[in-house]
Design brief:
Elements: E1 2-6, E2 15-19, E3 29-39, H1 41-47, H2 53-57, E4 67-75, E5 87-91, E6 104-108, E7 112-114, H3 121-126, H4 129-141, E8 149-152, H5 158-169, E9 173-178, H6 183-189, E10 193-196, H7 202-205, E11 209-214, H8 219-224, E12 228-236, H9 246-252, E13 255-258, H10 265-277, E14 284-289, H11 293-301, E15 308-312
Parallel strand pairs: 8-9, 8-11, 9-10, 11-12, 12-13, 14-15
Antiparallel strand pairs: 1-2, 3-4, 3-6, 3-15, 4-5, 5-7
Helix pairs in contact: 4-5
Length: 315
Amino acid sequence: MKAIILNTPGGAENLSMQELDKPVLQEGEVLVKVHAVSINPVDIKTRKGGALFQRLNEQPPVILGWDISGEVVEVAPGVTRFREGDAVFGMVNFPGAGKAYADYVAAPADHLALKPDNISHSEAAASTLAALTSYQVLIHEAGLKEGQNVLVHAAAGGVGHFAVQIARHFGATVSGTASAPNAGFLKELGVRQVIDYTKERFEEKATDVDIILDPVGGETTILSLQALRKGGILISIVGGVKDLMKDTLERKGIRARNYLVHSSGADMEVIARLLQEGSLKPHVSQEFSFDQMAQAQQQIETGRTRGKIVVRMDL
């Protein structure tokens, strides 16, 4: 099979296509012939030697990626949820070694869900890590309730555009930060108030907020504390919450924590249901072929991607 190997941490030029043997299944796994993968900022950070690189380097060769959509071609003992020929999608082995940049991926069956028949493999691959992050943060961590006010930073991005839709589906009023060109896109997704972070101070525009999802970090995390109501919660997915915030949190009666998404077939099934009924719609802004992986990663590195970037094996 073809796989893209990271030879050494660094730039996209360090990725190379190689021929490898197909993975050998362990109990509870299925072999997926991959049709599409999606690219995330964590892929870039890991490629450069940060994020999860050390963990992946313990299981060489280092193959990046976690988000897949494809077809089950082999089923190991202990698997009852899927059979050969099933179209499936999911985030595999995160935060471990997903090894998704390959023609075939060995995936734990309990990390996958059946792909809805009303979406493409590209759309399914896009609706994995980013969609799971949004769902787990808002529902499991923040305990989102109908009628709450939610602020989503970088709302037009991969995680952001899913978070907006999930929050709206569960009855929240949503504000989002984005640049002006993305305002129309976010209005279509149901954002009540679009805040142009290049010209406006979100901490003054969004007040009395119940839940803030922060995929940005740095000063954005710190300023976000000003927008929360008493009892509100801020969740950063980039490690933006620091110990030095403790005094502010206690004084204002608010909460803040960091969160790292994890693989979950049960949560993927919820995502699949929302996709099937049309409550959740992934936005794939650009597709690349497998041999254009470097270009796909460079697009993510611009930090200006609307929705998701997908790499298709059949282009």
